[in-house]
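It is worth pausing here to work through a concrete case rather than discussing structure prediction in the abstract. The textbook approach is simple: state the sequence, then state the predicted structure, then interpret. We follow exactly that order.
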Amino acid sequence: MTYTNFTVDVDADGIALVTWNMPDRSMNVFTEEVMNELDKIIDQVVADAGIKGAVITSGKDSFSGGADLTMLQKMLGIYAKEKAKDPEKAAKLLFDGAGRMGALWRKLETCGKPWVSAINGTCMGGAFELSLACHGRVAADSDKVKMALPEVKVGIFPGAGGTQRVSRLADPQSALQMLTSGQNLTPQKAKGMNLIHEIAEPKKLIETAKAMIKNGLKPVQPWDEKGFKLPGGPVYSAAGANLWPPAIAILRRETYGNYPAAEAILKCVYEGLLVPFDTGLRIEQRYFTEILQSKEAAAMIRSLFVSLQELNKGARRPEGIPDTKFKKIGIIGAGFMGAGIAYVTAKAGIPVVLIDRDQESAEKGKAHSDSLISDQVKKGRAKPEEREKLLSLITPSADYADLAGCDLVVEAVFEDSEVKKAATEKAEAALKSSAVFASNTSTIPITSLAKNSARPKNFIGIHFFSPVDKMMLVEIIMGKKTGDKALAVAMDFVRAIKKTPIVVNDTRGFYVNRCVLRYMSEAFKMLIEGVPAAMIENAAKAAGMPVGPLALTDETAVDLAQKIMKQTIRDLGEKAVDPRQMELINTMVDTHGRLGRKNGKGFYDYPAKPAKKKLWPGLKDLYPQKAPEKVDVEELKLRLLSVIALEAARVMEEGIVTDPREADVGSILAFGFAPYTGGALSYIDGIGAKKFVKIAKDLQKKYGAEFKAPKLLVDMAEKGETFYQRFDPYAKAEEKKAA
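Step two, the predicted structure:
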């Protein structure tokens, strides 16, 4: 038989090698067609008396990325349509659809012939569940091999038997940690957890897998054998009593109940381990169907999978401009930001010239890359030869003439218009006319900086976040005269260094900083109102933010907040900043010398390690404190999320961001806006514009103008629209095609 996505080759020993290699895809994923073909292959293996067993592997560098979540979105779309007609029929359709993959893996493991999974590279989600259903599992001893069940990160959970198999193979504590965190496993870690049987040299992977079958691998899973005992003992045992109550408490502490999928994992494992395996699968299927219908799953799948992938592939890149193959990149300014940009560029294999005012400063910038890559080598995450290669790609220099031949220059000098003007003029004197010049500014409008350029069409903003090596988002800022070519080159660069680009039109603070400053400002207001600092920070975390607003202010520096406020007053007048907030920050910086983490004291105290940071006790003496029981924590959470979401709505209204995917993905990647909501705009969509406008009006009456709903939102509330309807990113693409 011939298949589109697989080849089946039977050797002289009667072992079938099933090689998965999807045409026109860089990575194998599960689609309807793939599952249908696998179903037929299982039948073929069973029916052919000459086949003793099968090895499944991949014909690509990776094994598989798991299920194509757009298939899941389609299934949910059909469910939504059917639900309007017949809710009971719709639920049954969804339940059956949710169980398709799980039923297929169960068919494989009970087919009566042994199957071995030969894992040659990345093996995620449904592909790892397929591997767990195989009777034998071998992984290549390679850095390329990562195994995980990461579904919880996009609001769902392993629903094809993952919760049942992992908890019957690994000890329960490790199983729960892996399932609820979606952590990546190396071959060594997976073997230590009993999730794979062997680790083989990459060249001997297939040979090792076939040897398992030749050596009499049983075509029966441990849980299908009589007398099977759970690795951690029964749920109702002394060990179980020590595991389950703390597990529930830890999950609550980590997620604050914001992630229904994580809670469902605990329920699946707990209930599944009390019953026979097939009943456990049925329980898992029921919870999976329930989670699929949650607004958290819909929002997270859309933003953290579909939209993120689309943006990473260049959804906003102008059409008709050839891809840029970078031969040389220039970075001006070898300070913390410039040195970080040089590191990620060299890590992508692109030669870098790192310019500073003198050779010593430029060398110091290169030393930052040395320190980062050497740390990776020490931890075993990089090889010594990778260190040598990366450092060989960075040329430190004090001579602007060395920028000759660069396709792109990124200026990352001190945040001062005059310093940036000098850097632009010196660089342009050395650059070819087609080169693109980018400024990594966080506050100065790109249009005003472009006035220093002889070619404003090729002038653009590329705003990195600190630390550059860890932060995945980059804002690309369009000046009034920036051309499509500059945008395409900037996007090609951001994608080459494996970051996610969002396109922002020029404005003070761009997109991310406008939202972040609102978040911090609301916390300052709460402090002034007398809300205890610990309640502000805890309310933010309970709302789903990874870092409290006061801790975030410390990270970015309290004196930077002071500089921004003073600059805002200079530019926009006294009324642009709340005088009470200015007084609070002046007191912190000028009276108490509390500058943030950088000098070991800000809103928090930072004692020497291993001691943890703790809130500065002096905060409670700055303003009369409210009694904790008089503070409405739910309202604090609402204020912190709403103030950001309203700013994101204003940004859309002003045309600063024009694509809701970018607003949502940007808010999550840049400052961790409650991921379970799907992002700042999805948060409003999830509540509904009409209800959200009412919430905003109530908050405005109590707390002021920052909660005033923009006209756009009021209009959306009247029309019953969502952001993804009003600014449908796919409609624009369809219009272009039609034109």
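Step three, interpretation. The chain has three domains: 6-293, 329-510, 513-726. The CA atoms of residues 443 and 509 lie 5 Å apart.
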